[in-house]
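Exercise 3.2. Students should predict the tertiary structure of the chain below and write it as structure tokens, then compare their answer with the key that follows.

Predict this chain's 3D structure.
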Amino acid sequence: MPGLARKVLIFAAVDGLIIQPLSSKGQKPFQPARVKYGDASVSAARDQAPDSAKPDSWFEALGVVGLITVSRLTYLVTITRREQVAQVFGLPIYVVTQVAVTPCSSQSEAEESVRKTARLLRTETSSSVNNDDDSSSDEDSEMPLSTPDEEVDDDVVVKGDAPSDPKSSVAEDVIRRRGSYGRFAQRWFSRSGWTVDQRRTMGMSNSPSSTPPLVPSASQTPVVSLPSLQEADENLLAPASTLLPKLLRTIQVLFGSSRSFYFSYDVDITRSPSDNASTANPNGSLYTQVKKTFFWNRHVIQPFIDAGQDALALPLMQGFVGQRTFVADSQPPQIDDPGAESMELKDLSPPPSAPSSPPSGTARHSLELRPTERSYLITLISRRSTKRAGLRYLRRGIDEDGFTANFVESEQVLSSPAWDNSSPVYSFTQIRGSIPLFFTQTAYALKPVPVLQHSEETNYNAAKQHFERLSASYGTVQIVNLVEKRGVEGPIGTQYQNTMARINDGLDDKAKIPFEWFDFHHACRGMKFENVSHLLSTLKDQLETLGSTVKDNGQLVRKQQGVVRTNCMDCLDRTNVCQSSFAKHMLDLQLKEEGIDMSAQIDQETAWFNTLWADNGDAVSKQYASTSAMKGDYTRTRKRDYRGALNDLGISLTRLYTGMVNDYFSQAAIDFLLGNVTAKVFEEFEMDMMTKDPAVSVEKMRERAVELCQKRVVADVSEEFHGGWVLISPNAANVLKSWPMEETVLLLTDAALYFCRFDWDMDKVSSFERVTLASITNIKIGAYITSTISQTHMNEARNVGFVVSYQPGKSDVRRRNTRTLSTKDAPKFTATGEPQPAPAGFAGLFSGANGPKEPAIRKLAFKAPYADSSMPASGAGPRQTEMQKIDTICSEIERLAFERQVVKEGGERKKLVEKGDIISLDTARRSTGLLEQLGHSLKKLVWA
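Answer key:
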């Protein structure tokens, strides 16, 4: 089986976009791959090279990221710029700095896109030689994911262009003249004046009422040109999402200019260099050897794997790779020795012309090393997990499978610069991850309160599964919890401690998981971060017991016995300070085995080490919270002053902004690219401007809620249970619409309906209402439009529900679980059992002391949740449509009610179910408030 292609040529042919793999010498060792126009298929193609083609008809890529398909429009993502950041065993490690997104659904658009990419790449190459070439100034820098204000390298390839329709005078003028407004207009154009074809080509809605996008800052990239649908059968293609241009820009930012994805053609960087499996078999496929947990483009590269194009399957890892060389002396001179000089630092940046050559040792002032001096190489690799991946406030805590948010494996490797077998290779691994409990935090506060979710049993089962997986992977686990013991973080820290105590109760003494709670903010108050040494003193013996992995002469001599799992609330700032302290201690121990005492070295600050770990902290922080890490000044210099505190305040404000504005769409894009959700997630996002957590199974949650409600509220064991459903209802009876609507549980037995309001955070029944079937007088089925802020909300076929009318009687029961409410904040209730609203305006003057009277007929409204979801199909068969679900429920209620209701002799039974709009589209349009419309328009303006 062939190895990875070092480079590929991308060029458009009559029958597809051709990807021609090349060897390092530019040869064509095997058949190229083709992406056909109009779909995402990949097949073998004839040997077609662009040797005789025009220079602008092809471009050279450094690897294939994968294929993206949205609304049946397919895009090829390729690496066009890279930078070597390290080498392992003499083999280069690269970071992706630029990607190209090429449309594959139309030949004309593909050719145009390839031509523009080729021209841009050649322009950039020439401008790098001639700094006066102003063509490079026309290209805009991308921003790291969700980071609006941070500067990055100005080296991003932008695929595509504005529509080439000659009727578009504005677009033509902007692109061709490239005046002072060129950068601004390449990104966004006014929608006014665009033709229908142009809107469709750009993936925008044809609705005149659609809200124009917010004009972004000058740091964002031009809209990627999308393939024209004129050459395809338009009847077979779904309408392009209005969010498609934003998705394509996000792909460029995420895979390219964020500088957060690393790869190697020759070595598996998802595994430790001390692992024999980390060196790829030159005759095998690298993607089969990498850890799936750290294989970030596995989903989008799968079409090439399925087509047998293994040579194009280049695994990408998100995280950090950094490397430094340093010199240490086994017999350092005394401080008063006039010839004594400090150790020096050399960044490992091998020249691109010889990327695989090992770095030379660092010597003082380019002189030879003293006989007692040795040159070492320290490599730091952080690997972000694809499980529960995402952004700060949208992915917190744990999921049902025991995976935690922001899980990062950080490995520090000590070796010789040449990685020769005669020198030992030391490896020390740590992990970080969110607190393994179900909890959420709002993005709308500088210090939000963690809100615990679900029952203690549910949290216990998930945490137990998490630590069982860690123990199987790493061995002994030492927990270091850095959250505050008081204040807003105290309750979740206490719950974490209690959960671990319960887990340990079921384990043998040797298998127990030690739990160390170090209140970082209390111990280091007054900016005395050096007090972290107290934590190190406490864990010193445990760290040395866990030890390091050592490989000598190609053989594994010793294996690390366990791992330290560190967390704070975000697992970023406090965590990085402590992890760097642990890593420094282990580095000192490893060098002692080499006969070197670091405490005797003249350079006590070891700036090379601090800088490496600070860079690591910044990288992980940018990927999760969109900013650099806090407390970075202390990590770099081991000093803290007011300037660092002010910088941290600015970081906090930036995180607040990005959490409120940018992260929602970016989270949806990450879930889509990882294959956790389908492209329908963007339709759902456009409806509510929010994202759901794909790791939380909504179906399982609803099943558990139905089961729990059945156990709690159906008191008569003689009643036969016929079904339970989760539906959407107003927050009070006798009304059809409220803000917000809420998910409720409806149970049906052979005697009664049970309407349960459920606390989804705590997994408890907050109240329920029992309605005897004999008292039901009417069931109305029809359109139920509760919002008009998006096209999906106004679809009368999907927005359906029913209203049950009944005469309250002695057999009907209403109960409220007051244990779920605090005494202080408990609301007052009316005689009907509903929360009593606070009197407003003059209405309060005329309201009775006991609230409104009980109506003769009481009505309960239910709306069907949307059946179609962005979650991948579970294989359980096709889902019922919304109307099918409503018809099934109402028919069953009617059938059982007929069995309970008595008909007078000679009388005729009247049907209970009738058809009719509950809230029609016209009525909904008239009743939709201006505030609701304004709120959604503002969200769409900012987020979409």
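Discussion points: The mean pLDDT is 75. The longest helix spans residues 107-129.
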